[in-house]
C-alpha cells in the first residue's frame, strides 16, 4: 500500500496507520514462524503462501480486535482492511437512524464469520450469520464460541443455495425481530463460465474453495437474487447492502435496481492496494439512506 492510498482510507480505519511488521512478529509467535528476518533487520512476509496469509489474517484480527479466529482448511481468507472499511461504511449508513440496538444479517459468513465477529465485537451489533457449506457453519460457530459472542451472533445453515433470506425467514424458528441491514461478499465467479480455469495470475495466492468463489451466474445473479428477495422482505430489513468484486458489474446492478423501481440507492468504492471492491446499498424506507451518505470512495 502506498502512503497516498493510506491517506484515502476510511477516516476511522485503524489501518490508516500501517502495521509495524518488524514489531508484530515479536508479539505474535505463530506469525513470527511465517516471517523472514532480513539481514538489515526488516521482516519479509510471503504473500504468495497460503499458510502465511492465514497466520497474517489471524494475527491482524487478534492484534486489532482481540478476535481469536480459525479458518477451515482451504477456505476463503479475509483481509482486515477491506472488511473493516465495509463495517465502517455500514456504521455511516446506520448513524442517522440513531438505533439503540442494531441487528444485521451476514449473507455467506464463511468459515471465519469475519463480518459478524467484527460487527459484534466492535459495535455490539446482533448478527445472524448464514452460509451454505457445512464446514463453514462448523468453523463459524466455533469462532463465535472462541470469542464468547454467542449472545450476539446466531449462525444458521442455509439449506437452499438458490435462496438468500427466504429459508431463514420462512423457518418456524426464525426470530420475528426486524433487521437493520444485511452485509454480503458474494461468490464472485460464474460456475458455468469456461473462463474460470483461465483466470489471470494474481500477485498474492488466491484462497477459497470453488463453492465459496462460484455460483450460478456469478456475483451479478447472486446480487440480483438479493434484490428480488429484498422486495419480498422490505419490511424485515431496513438497508440491504452488498459488495461487488468486478467494476463492470456495478452498472449492471444499478440498472437492475432501476428496472425494479428501487431508486433509493447508494454506492461506495474500496481500494486496498491492488484489490478494488464496489458496494451498493438500497432501501425501501425513506428515512434510511435518503438524505445522507452521498456516494463515496475510500482507498487503502
Ligand atoms: C466469497 S465467500 C465470503 C466469506 C466471508 N463473508 C468473507 O467475506 O470473508 C462467499 C460465501 O457465501 C457462501 N454462500 C454461497 N451461496 C450462499 C447462499 N445462497 N446463502 C448463504 N451463503 C452462501 C459461500 O459458502 C461462501 O462462504
Automatic annotation (TrEMBL):
Its Enzyme Commission number(s) read 2.1.1.346
User: Keywords in UniProt for this one?
Assistant: Methyltransferase, S-adenosyl-L-methionine, Transferase
The reply on keyword Transmembrane is no
What is one GO cellular-component annotation here? nucleus
| SUPFAM superfamilies from the UniProt entry | S-adenosyl-L-methionine-dependent methyltransferases
Q: Where does S-adenosyl-L-methionine bind?
A: 83, 108, 131, 185
Q: Which GO terms describe its molecular function?
A: U6 snRNA (adenine-(43)-N(6))-methyltransferase activity
What are the BP-aspect GO terms?
rRNA base methylation
What the entry lists under InterPro entries is as follows:
METTL16/PsiM, METTL16/RlmF, SAM-dependent_MTases_sf
Endpoints of the signal sequence: none
Methyltransferase among keywords: yes
- Into which family does the record put it? Belongs to the methyltransferase superfamily. METTL16/RlmF family.
Name of the featured protein: U6 snRNA m(6)A methyltransferase
Q: Which gene encodes it?
A: LOC115627579
Amino acid at each position: 500500500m502506498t502512503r497516498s492510498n493510506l491517506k484515502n482510507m476510511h477516516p476511522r480505519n485503524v489501518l490508516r496507520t500501517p502495521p509495524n511488521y518488524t514489531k508484530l512478529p515479536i508479539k505474535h509467535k505463530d506469525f513470527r514462524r511465517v516471517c523472514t528476518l532480513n539481514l538489515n533487520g526488516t521482516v519479509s512476509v510471503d504473500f504468495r503462501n497460503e499458510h502465511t496469509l492465514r497466520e497474517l489474517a489471524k494475527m491482524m484480527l487478534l492484534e486489532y480486535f482481540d478476535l481469536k479466529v480459525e479458518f477451515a482448511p482451504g477456505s476463503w481468507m479475509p483481509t482486515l482492511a477491506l472488511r473493516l472499511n465495509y463495517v465502517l461504511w455500514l456504521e455511516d449508513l446506520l448513524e442517522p437512524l440513531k438505533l439503540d440496538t442494531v441487528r444485521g444479517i451476514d449473507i455467506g459468513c464463511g468459515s471465519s464469520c469475519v463480518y459478524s465477529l467484527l460487527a459484534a465485537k466492535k459495535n455490539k451489533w446482533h448478527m445472524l450469520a448464514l452460509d451454505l457449506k457445512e464446514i463453514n457453519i462448523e468453523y463459524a460457530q466455533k469462532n463465535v464460541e472462541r470469542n464468547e459472542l454467542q449472545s450476539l451472533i446466531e449462525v444458521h445453515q442455509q439449506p437452499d443455495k438458490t435462496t438468500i433470506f427466504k429459508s431463514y425467514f420462512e423457518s418456524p424458528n426464525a426470530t420475528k425481530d426486524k433487521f437493520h441491514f444485511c452485509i454480503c461478499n458474494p461468490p464472485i465467479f460464474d460456475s458455468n463460465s469456461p473462463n474460470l480455469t483461465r483466470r489471470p495470475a494474481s500477485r498474492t495466492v488466491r484462497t477459497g474453495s470453488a463453492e465459496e468463489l462460484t455460483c450460478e451466474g456469478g456475483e451479478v445473479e447472486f446480487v440480483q437474487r438479493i434484490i428480488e428477495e429484498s422486495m419480498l422482505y422490505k419490511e424485515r430489513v431496513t438497508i440491504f447492502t452488498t459488495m461487488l468484486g468486478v467494476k463492470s458489474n456495478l452498472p449492471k446492478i444499478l440498472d437492475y435496481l432501476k428496472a425494479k423501481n428501487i431508486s433509493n440507492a447508494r454506492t461506495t468504492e474500496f481500494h486496498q492496494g491492488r484489490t478494488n471492491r464496489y458496494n451498493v446499498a438500497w432501501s425501501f424506507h425513506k428515512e434510511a439512506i435518503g438524505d445522507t451518505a452521498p456516494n463515496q470512495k475510500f482507498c487503502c
